[in-house]
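Severity: low
Component: inverse-folding endpoint
Summary: output formatting inconsistent between runs
Steps to reproduce: submit the following C-alpha cells with default settings.
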C-alpha cells in the first residue's frame, strides 16, 4: 500500500496512490510528447539529508519576493545552501534518485 503526502492538493492527506494518480495527476489526459510528465523519485533519507534551498527561486529579477517567504530558516546542509536546481532537473541519470515517466512511476508505486 502506497500513501501520498501532497500538501498541494485538496485530496485527503495522506491519500492512496491510485486516488492520487486518478485525481491529481489525471493520466487519462492526452498530452503532446514534449509535455509528458516526469517524476524524480528520491529516497526520503536522501532527500532529508541532502536537500537545501536558499529560497532564491522565490525572488523576482528585481530581488523582490514573489510571495512572502516562510518565517522559518532556510533549509541547508553542511555541504550546500542551495541545491534545488539539481532536484528539479529531469535529466535521466543526473542528480539524486531516479527520473521516471508516468508509466514507470505508476508501475513502481502501484
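Observed output (run 2 of 3):
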Amino acid at each position: 500500500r502506497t500513501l501520498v503526502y501532497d500538501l498541494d492538493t485538496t485530496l485527503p492527506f495522506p491519500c492512496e496512490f491510485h486516488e492520487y494518480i486518478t485525481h491529481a495527476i489525471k493520466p487519462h489526459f492526452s498530452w503532446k510528447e514534449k509535455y509528458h510528465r516526469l517524476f524524480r523519485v528520491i529516497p526520503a533519507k536522501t532527500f532529508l539529508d541532502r536537500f537545501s534551498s536558499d529560497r532564491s527561486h522565490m525572488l523576482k529579477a528585481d530581488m523582490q519576493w514573489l510571495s512572502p517567504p516562510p518565517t522559518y530558516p532556510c533549509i541547508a546542509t553542511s555541504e550546500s545552501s542551495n541545491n534545488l536546481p539539481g532536484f528539479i532537473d529531469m535529466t535521466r541519470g543526473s542528480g539524486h534518485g531516479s527520473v521516471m515517466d508516468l508509466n514507470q512511476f505508476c508501475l513502481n508505486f502501484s
